[in-house]
TrEMBL record:
InterPro entries: DnaK_N, Znf_DskA_TraR. It holds the Pfam family zf-dskA_traR. One of its GO terms (molecular function) is zinc ion binding. The lineage of its organism: Bacteria, Pseudomonadati, Myxococcota, Myxococcia, Myxococcales. Residues 83-107 form the Zinc finger DksA/TraR C4-type domain. Keywords: Metal-binding, Zinc, Zinc-finger. This is Conserved uncharacterized protein.
Length: 128
């Protein structure tokens, strides 16, 4: 299969994943709203369980929002014809990397360098 066909396949996977997230997110928002509307018994244990459920659902909503943003950015890069190009060196990111991480904007080498720079670390040198 050609790279163009593989990229189209990745686009379809991203679009399908986006639809799935939006469907799940709608249910999550409903659950969160129902939880907040529900009158609570003043018992501590029940309140703690409610807070935990609220925290968990809120975290899920935020995670879904971030993934939608990454998908939208990847789809924009596809529309602009730059999807699959490393933003640092400009080479084509290997298809196996894009299939595993469709949001990747850097080749593996540049991603590692970027991560090390971000953390302020250095690559480990082998000891002699």
């Amino acid at each position: 299969m050609t790279r163009v066909n593989e990229l189209l396949k990745i686009r379809q996977l991203l679009q399908r994943r986006r639809r799935e997230i939006l469907t799940v997110s709608l249910g999550t928002h409903r659950e969160l709203a129902a939880l907040k509307e529900q009158e609570k018994d003043p018992e501590y244990e029940e309140g703690a369980q409610s807070e935990l459920a609220d925290y968990t659902l809120s975290s899920l909503v935020e995670s879904q929002r971030r993934e939608i943003m990454l998908i939208d950015a990847a789809l924009r890069r596809m529309d602009e014809g730059v999807f699959g190009e490393c933003v640092d060196c400009g080479i084509e990111i290997p298809l196996d990397r894009l299939e595993a991480m469709p949001f990747a904007i850097r080749c593996e080498e540049d991603a590692t360098s970027h991560e090390l720079e971000t953390r302020g670390g250095r690559m480990a040198t082998p000891s002699l």
